[in-house]
Structure formats: C-alpha cells, structure tokens
Amino acid sequence: MTLRTQHSLSGFIASDPQRTVTERGDSRFYVRIGQPQFRREDDGSFTELPPEFHDLVAYRATADRAMTRFSKGDQFVAEGYVHRYQVERDGQVVDREEFVAKKIGHDLARTDYDVDRTRRHAATVRRDAEASAAEPITSPAAPVGSATSALHR
After folding, report:
1. In this structure, are residues 81 and 59 in contact, taking their beta carbons and an 8 Å threshold?
2. How many domains does the chain have?
3. Is residue 138 a part of any domain in this protein?
4. DSSP string of 67-91?
5. Tens-of-pLDDT digits for all 153 residues of the chain?
C-alpha cells in the first residue's frame, strides 16, 4: 500500500485574515504567515533569527472555516502544495509563490484549545440508532434462560 503524502507547513499567522471571492464565486482565505528561523551554533545552542514571511491561501469550505477560526498570532499546521506563478510589477515579470492549504488547523504543540465534538457525537448517535433499527429483534448472544434465548432453542 502506498502512503500518500503532501507538503506541510507550520508557522504563525502574521496578518489579519482576508476573505475574498474568486471569479468562479469560491471563497478565498488569504494571510501572510511567518516561519521562525534558527541557526545552530558550534556549541550546540541555537540563535533565533528574524522569521521568514510567505503567502498562504485556502479555498471554498476550508477558506470559510479558516476565516472563523484563525486570528493574527495563531500557530498553525497546514497540508497542501506550493503554487508558483508570475505577476507583472512595474513592467517587470516577478516570480511569486504561495502555499495552498487544503487542510489547516491550530498547532496543538503550541496552542491550548478545547475540542467541540458535538457534530461528531450527533453523527455517532444517529449511526448507532440506524444500525439498531436494522438489527433483528432477537439476538443470538442473549444470555441462556432469557426470553430471547428461548426463541433460538
């Protein structure tokens, strides 16, 4: 079996999130993100360097969720791919790149948060109820001597 992987990116949200709409009417989430940089010294210690900044975007449902959940300063982890493109600025063609996040969430190693499992719990209850409705009324695993076990004798 092949393990499918994608690029990942972690860092912090460096700008206020912006929501726009594409020409096709899809939601687009845009932020500048920062990635801390460190240099390892000969003695084994690390020196903190200025962060590097990049563009991050997300589209459609991921964009809508990101707009409600992320704020400037939040630590994140994202999965997706790098999109390289060119733009014209002052008559010059400039190479640019942005990270397109297909999935994005808070970095649990650096963020305290509570998880709301309400939707998942409701889906589990609904699935269990549907499964119970599809089961036969009598169960072959009923204890000996019970009314249902007498039906199976």
Report:
1. no
2. 1
3. no
4. HHH--TT-EEEEEEEEEEEEEEETT
5. 899 999 999 999 999 999 999 999 999 999 999 999 999 999 999 999 999 999 999 999 999 999 999 999 999 999 999 999 999 999 999 999 999 999 999 999 999 988 888 887 777 777 877 877 777 655 555 555 544 444 444
Bridge partner list, 40: 46
For the whole model, what pTM was predicted?
A: 0.74
- 60 Ramachandran zone, left/alpha/beta (phi>0; psi -120 to 50): left
The enclosing domain of 67 has a CATH number of 2.40.50.140
User: Cα 139 vs. chain centroid, distance in angstroms?
Assistant: 42
Residue 139 domain-assigned (yes or no): no
